[in-house]
Amino acid sequence: MRTLYLALKYLAILLWSSFVVFPFLWALSTSFKTANGVTSGATYLPWVDYEPSLLGWESLFGGAGGINIFGPYLNSVIVTVSASVVSLVLGTLAAYGLSRFRFRAGFVKNGDITFFFISQRILPPIVLAMPFFLMLQTLGLLDTLPGLVIVYIALLLPIAVWVMVDFFNNVPRELDEMAWLDGCNPIQTFLRVILPNSLPGLVVAGMFCLIFGWNDFFFAFTLTFTNTQLLPVAIVSLNSSVTPWWALSAACLVSVAPLLLLAFLAERFLSRGNLAGAVR
Amino acid sequence: MAEIHLEQLAHSYAPDAPERVYALQPLDLTWQDGETYALLGPSGCGKTTMLNIISGLIRPSEGRVLFDGRDVTGEDTRRRNIAQVFQVPVIYRSMTVAQNLAFPLVCRGLPRARIRQRVGEIAELLGLSTFLKRPARELTADQKQLISLGRGLVREDVSAILLDEPLTVIDPQMKFELRKKLKQINEAAGVTMVLVTHDQNEAMTFARTVIVMNHGRIVQSGEPQELFECPATEYVGTFIGSPAMNFLATVPREGRREVPDLGLGLSVPKGEDARSGTWTLGFRPEHVFAEGDGWPLRGRIRRIWFEGVEQVLEVEAGETVFRAKLDHARVRTGESVELRIAPERLALYRDGQRVGAGYD
Ligand SMILES: Nc1ncnc2c1ncn2[C@@H]1O[C@H](COP(=O)(O)OP(=O)(O)O)[C@@H](O)[C@H]1O
Ligand SMILES: [Mg+2]
Hints:
The complex is a heterodimer of chains A (280) and B (360).
Chain A: H1 2-31, H2 35-39, H3 55-58, H4 70-100, E1 104-105, E2 108-109, H5 110-122, H6 125-139, H7 145-169, H8 173-181, H9 186-194, H10 199-215, H11 218-222, H12 231-236, H13 245-274
Antiparallel strand pairs in A: 1-2
Helix pairs in contact in A: 1-13, 4-7, 4-10, 5-7, 7-10, 8-9, 10-13
Chain B: E1 4-11, E2 24-31, E3 36-40, H1 47-55, E4 62-67, E5 70-71, H2 77-80, E6 82-85, H3 97-107, H4 112-126, H5 141-153, E7 160-164, H6 172-189, E8 192-197, H7 200-206, E9 209-214, E10 217-222, H8 224-229, H9 234-239, E11 246-249, E12 251-253, E13 256-259, E14 264-267, E15 279-283, E16 288-289, E17 295-307, E18 310-317, E19 320-326, E20 336-341, E21 347-350, E22 353-357
Parallel strand pairs in B: 3-8, 3-9, 6-7, 7-8
Antiparallel strand pairs in B: 1-2, 1-4, 4-5, 9-10, 11-15, 12-13, 13-14, 15-21, 16-20, 17-18, 17-20, 18-19, 21-22
Helix pairs in contact in B: 3-4, 3-5, 4-5
The complex binds adenosine-5'-diphosphate and magnesium ion.
């Protein structure tokens, strides 16, 4: 009975993981193909099914008809990381305030303010494109890194606030009260007691910010021209009249690699029992 | 250290509601400096609310809190210098045991060496010395509660230490030890201690003054002996003591109230009408004895059980059932017995309130 259960469990896990892993393997295999390898039906194994070539990878590093991926890569890292850090810091502060202090301005209360933050993400992005474009243009920040960072903060802040409000609401108030009794003022309470206990929430919020920031194509595309290119835009620019599947596959792997690494690290961190409750 | 005075204090968690529901009914109360108190009462009677008002975690909806005559009602918790231990252990998960214990002192900027010394002393007292370097989150629930307790005890200059049922999660042997240690600390440092509990034994053994609460009201406060001997209400008599106090139904007879089945009764005090209201005759099972001078209690033994080395007899006489606690009576279930009670041990309760006792 138990063996059967285990067998079924592992079968399910195996099926699911192949479902998840297969696209990556497929992309990996495709990245070493050439036009011939791609169009001559499904082939899987290099040297056996098809002759591997480095054409796809070369086109990422200044090869013929390709791009130099370093510049956009660095841009993406700078924009995503700085916007995420700023959003996380501001968002965490805002979230702690919203979770612990009561605000009131007429009929506007804590819940409404929280919803106001989240509502930024409910708008379809296209609605925001024009205002953002005009604002950046007026400020002379179109097609610059600072401009993109500002826009990304506007996009990521709601996520950070949302995740952290939910997190803080689940941190028992007794922890704050204990800190007051021990002699902390509100800022010390936050910095010395609540924040060190909030690492899991910060990790999750940070993950979300990095993923959403890294993956954005729409604003990276509409708010830049040629000077400041982010990775997703650079990858799309690889495309031409003949779709270079090998180059796109290689680019896709390169662009998804840091997220995979991040997810892996976060998973290790969270599974170390850091997610357990703060009291008891 | 301070004398704490609650003046015309009342609290409602929903003060704006049309029908005000009080978690704490209006009351006046003084906590003497350096005393030990036990706050006794069932769940939901307002004990935690009272402590939270003293420590400033809750602003009372009415009345004032005075420390040595100084009004602190609007003052923040951290300025009141109160130590409080909650019912559930609260620990700082990101810190070690030593850092947890040191935190209240670190926050107040004590010198390093002094902090180390105090933490050592408290850890020794609570048996946490071997765990000092361990992350606090790795300890068991009762050890965590000891840490909570330790953080409450580590400061020497606190106005009062409020203990909100801190011993619930701790096993009975350890509980006993801890109560003893708390008393030692109280005697050594002369710091006011308030122990909230719903365990009457804990209350009676720990405190010089026991305060019994029910439904947000203080029902009676006094020394343990006084509460035991002269419960002000039927509620206190039932709540304190095991088995509970006997309260027997009575009928009026010529200005007296009598238990017809026992032929036992007392005159009602002057000015009271023996015919109106519900009157009961109360006496402690412990005050019943087997032989000697006293009024007789005759009946048939329904049941016998032991509490410690003592025997509890459940005796029935007609419609009336009462309990007696005796050292060792050589009796068996079903037998008829004649027990005795000293008349001054009897008291009359009218509508649940003590109105007179013995011969008066
Ligand atoms: N935060 C709160 N909001 C509303 N009602 C509360 C709150 N805390 C306690 N109460 C109510 O106040 C009463 C007293 O509660 P409490 O002081 O916690 O009692 P105890 O500590 O004696 O068990 C209870 O009826 C409880 O339901
Ligand atoms: Mg309570």
